[in-house]
What does this fold into?
Amino acid sequence: MRFTSPQTLLTLTVAATSVAAAPFEYPLPDGFPTPSPAQIAAIEQLAGGTLPNGPSPANLTKTAITNLHLLALNEFFETAYFTELLANVTNDVPGYDAGSIAPLDKTYVVDALTAVVNQEQLHALGINAILAGAGHKIIKPCEYEFPVTTFKQAILLAQTFTDVVLGTLPKAQAIFAADGGDESPLIQLFGSVLAQEGEQAGFYRYVQKKTPSAAPFLTGGSPSFTFTAIQAFIVNGSCPQPLPDIALTTFGTLNVLTTPEAKNMTLDFSVSGSVSPFNNSIVYLSGQNLPVAVPISNVKPVAGAFQFQASFPFESGFANGLTIAALVKGAGTTFNSTDSVAKATVYGPGLIEVD
Ligand SMILES: *[C@@H]1O[C@H](CO)[C@@H](O)[C@H](O)[C@H]1NC(C)=O
Ligand SMILES: *[C@@H]1O[C@H](CO)[C@@H](O)[C@H](O)[C@H]1NC(C)=O
Ligand SMILES: *[C@@H]1O[C@H](CO)[C@@H](O)[C@H](O)[C@H]1NC(C)=O
Ligand SMILES: *[C@@H]1O[C@H](CO)[C@@H](O)[C@H](O)[C@H]1NC(C)=O
Ligand SMILES: *[C@@H]1O[C@H](CO)[C@@H](O)[C@H](O)[C@H]1NC(C)=O
Ligand SMILES: *[C@@H]1O[C@H](CO)[C@@H](O)[C@H](O)[C@H]1NC(C)=O
It folds into this structure.
């Protein structure tokens, strides 16, 4: 997977090859992921609020469990990421002088990230409590590596994966709603988490002097896109639970080679396997619009991979912020939902940030 944006072209191929720092490992000094009651109270203090104290569902469907596993996996990744980012800013690691970006000052950024780290810990603990409460396996954290070495890169990446989460949580809500019964209270609970992540996304955009709210309707996703995206940061083989036990698909990597801009343009892509204009297309998910499928062209083998091009019709109604690209099976097919795109996907998600 590759994350791209107009300002910075980040080559975020799987981190293991390019990152010198040691992988991030739990536990944290505050006891997380298994804090004592006193430690939980301290985390809640720093998070600005407590874990929910209402009853949790006695019964969960298989699909709900899969989604809770995905969400917990994501919260452990986010907690690791923001813990490391907070440490980098606090310790004045070169490239992390957050105070140099007017109108920020270091204390404000440290306070903001401290809240986020503790809030993400409570998200993870809360999801595991829902799983355990219904008698299901909880998620345990893995080891992580992050392909960023400056504050600016780190904030852009935080914006990008938070945008992915903003498209994932509505999907989880839809699943809980379809299941009904015991799961109904989870719709509101995750509505509050969704809004919380939206507050974070506004901060990450503000730091980059982007309009805090990107678009009227943000981009949706599909659980397997998020599942694949998170794995780019997980050290291979480091998860206590085998990831294939989570009933989602891991797609091949779709690299977006061009820096996208907020206009109609052509993008270059690459994938590891052979593709053809007769059998494949690129599909974009942007805003709450129907998926947009475009043909691919100029397929050529390059250094053991396959490069090709596709148009990026941004001016036909795409949303600012995140657009998700996927290389799908079939040419000339139209898709009417994000899930139907995921079902046809071979390589993806390509995460494209514009503005
Ligand atoms: C929920 O789980 C309980 C305990 O496992 C079981 O007795 C009950 O039948 C379940 N209810 C539904 C609606 O599945
Ligand atoms: C923290 O800084 C180290 C050293 O530059 C870097 O390797 C790591 O990716 C950074 N992590 C984050 C989340 O910014
Ligand atoms: C991760 O490990 C699996 C199983 O050992 C292997 O098939 C895969 O190629 C590895 N992936 C990376 C990116 O190293
Ligand atoms: C398209 O897919 C079909 C069926 O899988 C295959 O036989 C054919 O060779 C493919 N065409 C190209 C140009 O790759
Ligand atoms: C952008 O591309 C779309 C789709 O091809 C087209 O409908 C639209 O007219 C183009 N807009 C501009 C300003 O070129
Ligand atoms: C999407 O398309 C499928 C198959 O073409 C159809 O069964 C389904 O009802 C459509 N869904 C929507 C929301 O239009």
Observations:
- The two ends are 20 Å apart (CA to CA).
- The chain has a mean pLDDT of 93.
- The pocket of 2-acetamido-2-deoxy-beta-D-glucopyranose (ligand 6) is lined by residues 336-337 (CB under 6 Å).
- Strands lie at 3-4, 255-256, 264-271, 280-286, 292-302, 305-313, 321-329, 345-354.
